Amino acid sequence: MWPTILAKRIGIDYPIILAPMAGGPSTPELVASVCEAGGLGSLGAGYLAPVAIRAAIREIRARTDRPFAVNLFIPEPSAEPPSEAAVQAASRALEPIRRELHLAGAPRLGAPPDFEAQLAVIKEERVPVFSYTFGSLDERRVRELHELGTTVLGSATTVEEARLLEATGVDAVVAQGAEAGGHRGTFTVVPERALIGTMALVPQVVDAVRVPVVAAGGIMDGRGIVAALALGAAAVQLGTAFLACPESGAHALHKKAMLARYAEDPTRLTRAFSGKMVRGFSNQFMTEIEKAGAILPYPYQNSLTGEIRQAAVRQERPEFASMWAGQGAPMATAKPAGQLMRELIAQAEQVAARLTLRGPNSPNT
Known about the structure:
- This protein has helices at residues 5-10, 28-36, 50-63, 84-100, 115-124, 139-147, 159-168, 198-208, 222-230, 252-258, 284-292, 300-304, 306-314, 337-358, and strands spanning 16-18, 41-44, 68-73, 129-133, 151-156, 172-176, 182-183, 213-216, 235-238, 267-270, 278-281.
- It is α/β, with parallel strands linked by helices.
- An 8-stranded parallel beta sheet has the order 1-9-8-6-5-4-3-2. The protein has a 3-stranded antiparallel beta sheet with strand order 7-11-10, with no helix packed on it.
- Helix 3 packs parallel to helix 5 and helix 9 (222-230) crosses helix 14.
């Protein structure tokens, strides 16, 4: 069953990729732990300054000599910043929550990360694997990364996006199903038109492109891994499964929510926090801001709500905190990442063996 063609290309033992979880959960310790267990750890560096990215890369290398990945966000297409009237309206919508959290003054819009400077660090450090989301990297940059020995992965939420990525020369396409936690990587249509489940998306992408496909979204255990491989995926990407691990940088409120064992799906999609569609635990903030209807486009809304998100964590107010998670959240555990990796591998092998022993004529098939 493994290693698959993509695992061999990257140089990992098992086709299991730690999803890049930017904004805190992604730590060098978590990345290295997954790498040491034979998978591919990914650093979510989309919000980090270049100097912080370099420091994290070097810390990962100090912890492991195995291949690892770094992920960045492709900048939004050029567009005019929101008008002053739109900013004021969005600020007014946030004001009651700011008062509740005792935040003084008006929120400020910060500058988005410098993608070119971030990418320069990726090249200078000769990162083994580079992955990206929110768009498509042009052919020239993909070629430059290849010349440095870097394997390149792009994220798609539709067949059309997968084909566009393949045309640029990527080594693999990450097919992100609607179940996935965190931001939607859609970049060719409005996200509402790209909410395709993993089980439906993966085989369509596999049939549409010639490069290996990574299945992402809703995969939490060995059963999901085997199912994805059966659909034609060359690897799986898991994020939510690792959020509650001790090595994860997710804050205590986030980990508590992960382990709450909700009877029903506790997550939903929203633009309230960042202006881009994202899946996370449903809370009061989402409800109130969506009701107000004044939400700036990404990355401006993300900047405007930053102080609120930080204060909510400090004050232990989960009703106002951003806590991304996928639909598989109720299946999460708080085991160390290395142990979780070993269990995922064992589970997948057991499932595959059971299916093989049953055979096509088994009464249970």
